[in-house]
Design goal:
The protein has 48 residues and is mostly helical. It has 2 helices and no strands. The chain has a domain of 33 residues.
């Protein structure tokens, strides 16, 4: 079984409380019950 599928199965089975950062929208949609999107204010420069 693919490790990603194992993680998805465990998350749906045990429903733990957790905070994660994820770029894969499909995985985030499956795993998250709530989402928070953070973005830099306009004109902000990335940190060095």
């Amino acid at each position: 079984m693919d490790s990603r599928m194992q993680i998805e199965r465990l998350l749906t089975e045990f429903q733990p409380t957790m905070v994660f950062v994820e770029h894969d929208a499909a995985f985030a949609d499956m795993a998250a019950t709530r989402t928070l999107t953070l973005s830099a204010p306009s004109g902000a420069c990335p940190s060095q």
